[in-house]
Amino acid sequence: MCDTIINIVNIVGKEVVRTVIGLVGVFIVVLGNAIMLTWTERKVAGHIQRRIGPKEVGPFGLLQSFADSVKLLGKELLTPANVEKPLYFLAPTLIFVPVLVTFVVIPFDGFLQVKDINTGILVILAFSSLTVLSILIGGWGSDNKYSLIGAVRSVAQNIAYEIPLLLALLPVILMANSFSLRDIAEAQRGAWFVVYQPIAFLIFFVASVAETNRTPFDLPEAESELVAGFHTEYSGMRFSLFFLAEYTNMFIVSAIAVTFFLGGYQGPILPGVVWFFIKTYLLVFVLLWFRWTFPRVRFDQLLNFSWKILIPVSFLNLLVTGGILKL
Amino acid sequence: MTMTNRVIEEFKAEFKSVDITEAPYEKQGYHLSIEARTGNLLNIIDFLDKREFYIVDLFCVDYQDYLELVYFFNTHRELCRIKVTLKLDPVKPVAPTISNIYTIARWYEREVHEFFGVYFEGHPNLTYLFLHEEIGHYPLRKQHVPVPDGDKKLLNSFRPHEEENSFFINLGPQHPSTHGVLRVVLKMDGEYLISAEPVLGYLHRMHEKMAENKSYMQFLPNPARMDYPGALLFNLAYVEAVEKLCGIEVPERAKYIRTITCELNRIASHLLWLGAFPADLGALTPFMYAFDDRENILDILEDVTGSRLTYCYFRFGGLYNDINEETFIDATKRFIERMRERLVMYDKLITGNVIFINRVKNIGILEQGQAKKYGFSGPVIRSTGIPFDMRKVEPYAAYGSIDFEIPTGHIGDNMDRYMVRMKEIEISLNIIEEGIKRLPSGPFKTEKVPKKLKPPKGDIYNAVESTRGETGVYIVSDESDTPYRMRWRVPSYSNLMTFPHLSRGVLIADAIATLGSYDIVVPEIDR
Amino acid sequence: MGKRSFYLETKDPIIKFAVLDKILDLARANSLWPITFGLACCAIEMMCASMARFDIARFGAEVFRPSPRQADLMIVSGTVTKKMAPILVTLYEQMPSPKWVIAMGNCAISGGPFVFEGQYNLVEGVDLLVPVDIYVPGCPPRPESLLEGLMKLEEKITGTRRFPVPEPKW
């Protein structure tokens, strides 16, 4: 058996094997993250609200997410009569593709990265715009007024908040002199970039809350106004794909924030991977905390905030950084 | 010179042929009674409109030889209740509409039409409001009167026709929030509302028809189901009306306990609103905290009354049973202390939150001038600056001897309604403290109440200040042991009907925030 | 509307998978997602059951989904009037199977305190419209009763009961 494996490795080449193993690892991380986050969100919500959250399903309610996913797998796959079938079926699958692609370039440790593309951050930003496309397709194809309003809101919101997201990342790229994520993580050997760029960190974090459609910016799925927003007509496994994509998106934006501003995988004593996960989940916890504390902003307040406040401030930050680096 | 005398003088000067009599206020609950005719009804209504009277209620009573349309008016400045009646022919009842003068009459007249079959000339939209389309008779008539075939088209309650640049969206009747079964049809242009039209009747539980079939004692559980968060206050309105009609005296201790439990219920209802209002805006955590506090009140009241939500604690002449002095007073004092700290916490969590303030300030502004046309009451009218509270205007139970102030707002936006309710919780805590200090000992019930209550012939109107506004009950008795007609004037009805006016040209998120700040309960509208 | 439909399992499915069915039943029983369908007074007690004191989240059922396509349990809490009846049936049909219905409160079971001679607007019991699995009596039932109804529904789905039945002390 060992001989056949070594033969295959020699034929195909070390790079390909490494990539395949990396992709399998990425799948495991994505699924494990989604399963863990559903449980964590409900527990965190419970404790903020002075109750316990899931408790009976397994010890400490740990099997709750398994019960949810098995139940959703066994649900009837209902297709409403008037939907546009190609769009309706495409939307949940399309929302997962960019998520998986962005995982390819995130550095979990010094060499634990599937592929170190040297325009890493551009790949991430380009692919994460595709999530908006899938929300729009889902909302349009559902042939339902609530979904349409939710999808339209989501498009406006995402377009408005992508610009500050990008502008907040540019100063760090200027300082590290490279687009590749590993180089940026390595460039923080001396001091983390959050020390030099606190404003950019805050702007990036707020814009990423809007990009992942979490409260206080969760207008596309505003529960008390539009019945359930853009995923009103989705049931069973298709609905759970939307949910998994949201949780994975949360992980990705936290991972990018950690890599760009909080030193990536660097830290004393413990191995880099462990530090990476600790920092990322700390930011994910802050995202969960926001959901159960703040009310929702209104739509025009949301757009005003982005176009009139976030973009000028981040522009100014970029100019100042560029000026200082030149001198 | 009191308002009553002034009105009599001016009325006699203007309308020489119309009968105006002064009714005994203690027995009947209203001051003046005017008998109008179809010809001069509009002039009389105009006369009252010019003197700043607002319309309290509009309904119909079926005395089998004739139908009588009854209008009640009152002012915000001084209590002067005027009843205007109009007799109609039972076979083909036609009356002029007053909806050009008082806007809320549009909905009251629709209701009278569908329950009694009265036609209103000049009404813009005389379609059915509460009942479903297969009903083929007029329910509240004493005999079975079928709907004539030519009028079946009026049953068509709301069919919006599509237009070029707008679309219709339904808010409800299945709601993700706690409004109950209210359906509002919104006509939208993008995110902006062009018009909003409430469709009612999804929870019409026939309370007024039940009152005509059950005895006074058997009807006691019903008022609580009308307004379930503030059930004791509706109980109080009904029980006091019957006591005044029969001339039953209530002992002092019962009055004080009624006051204390009613104020506890008011706090519980406001806490429910405090949870639901931020939930409409998207904050899900204050819901949990507010219900936590509410559970304390429910424990205290459950100990005394036996139920958690739909209380039936008051009886004619007093209470069902006495409170257990040590446990009740102890628990209430501990609750008052705890609630005062929690109010500070709510201030920091909700009122001080920038996102909340931006969602709520300067939105849904209701002007004082609209108060007359709609007759809204409760925290809604107090937020516009008019200090009108039935507990001060017409004191009942023990409110006459307890001193408290009335909170008012400034401009009548959502923030003002929120602040008025928060201050009302504090004031209720003060009232409860005062009431406990002064609680007299003595019997909790009068002994001499007959089992089968047969009140003397006559009618009475009694109003209390429930959690949402002015609640009134009008009973006509014909000396038997079931009421001849019972009419409930509910505050959420007149509060809700300002919503179409306020929601023109606003964003849908603002419309929902405004609807949440009204604190309506649909079962009391639908009765 | 028609005659009362008590939901009895009268026919077994043709193909049965032993272990897979058991796992599916356990998963479905432990993650019942109700639809927000509060009609009247019982709705407040249903909300109390999902609040901090009684906490329906312990059993995995706190995710109240507003859209019927994502829910599997319909708790009919409150009176069903003739005007509301078609809407209830539409919502029930929009839910994907497997789905269950709990009739909470006396009004949903058989009309409640509003049944009298000459009533013209009431559907006397929601089981004249949709098949009902569990009846929870009370006016309104306490939140603990609703939780007991949930336990009974779990017993109906999986076949075994999770907690011991509370024994009366007298």
CATH fold naming of chain C: Rossmann fold
Task: Return the domain count of chain B.
Answer: 2
CATH second-level architecture of chain C: 3-Layer(aba) Sandwich
At the first level of CATH, the class of chain C is: Alpha Beta
**Largest interface, counted by CB within 8 Å of the partner chain's CB:** B-C, 40 and 37 residues
Portion in beta strands of chain C: 5-15%
Question: How would you describe the overall organization of this protein?
Answer:
The complex is a heterotrimer of chains A (327), B (527) and C (170). Chain A is an all-alpha fold. Helices cover 69% and strands 0% of the residues of chain A. Chain A has 13 helices and no strands. The model of chain B has no long low-confidence stretch (mean pLDDT 86). In chain B, strand 14 and strand 15 form a beta hairpin. In chain B, 41% of the residues lie in helices and 17% in strands. Chain B is built from 19 helices and 15 strands. A five-stranded mixed beta sheet of chain B has the order 1-2-5-4-3. Chain B has a three-stranded antiparallel beta sheet with strand order 8-9-10. A three-stranded antiparallel beta sheet of chain B has the order 13-14-15. Chain C has a single domain, classed as 3-Layer(aba) Sandwich (Rossmann fold), CATH 3.40.50.12280. Chain C is 31% helix and 9% strand. In chain C, strands 1-2-3-4 form a four-stranded parallel beta sheet. In chain C, helix 2 links the parallel strand 1 and strand 2. The interface between B and C is large, with 40 and 37 residues.
Gist?
With about 325 residues, chain A is mainly α. Chain A has helices spanning about 1-10, 15-50, 65-75, 85-105, 120-130, 130-140, 145-175, 180-185, 195, 200-210, 235-260, 270-290, 300-325.
Please give the structural blueprint.
The complex is a heterotrimer of chains A (327), B (527) and C (170).
Chain A: H1 2-12, H2 14-48, H3 64-73, H4 85-103, H5 120-128, H6 130-141, H7 145-176, H8 181-186, H9 193-196, H10 198-211, H11 237-261, H12 272-291, H13 299-326
Chain B: H1 3-14, E1 19-22, H2 25-28, E2 32-36, H3 41-50, E3 53-63, E4 66-75, E5 82-88, E6 94-96, H4 105-116, E7 119-121, E8 167-171, E9 183-189, E10 192-199, H5 207-213, H6 222-226, H7 231-246, H8 252-281, H9 285-305, E11 314-315, E12 318-319, H10 325-351, H11 354-360, H12 371-374, H13 379-383, H14 390-393, H15 414-437, E13 458-466, E14 469-477, E15 485-489, H16 491-496, H17 499-502, H18 508-518, H19 522-526
Chain C: H1 18-30, E1 34-35, H2 41-49, E2 73-77, H3 85-94, E3 100-104, H4 106-110, E4 134-136, H5 143-158
Parallel strand pairs in C: 1-2, 2-3, 3-4
Helix pairs in contact in C: 1-5, 2-5
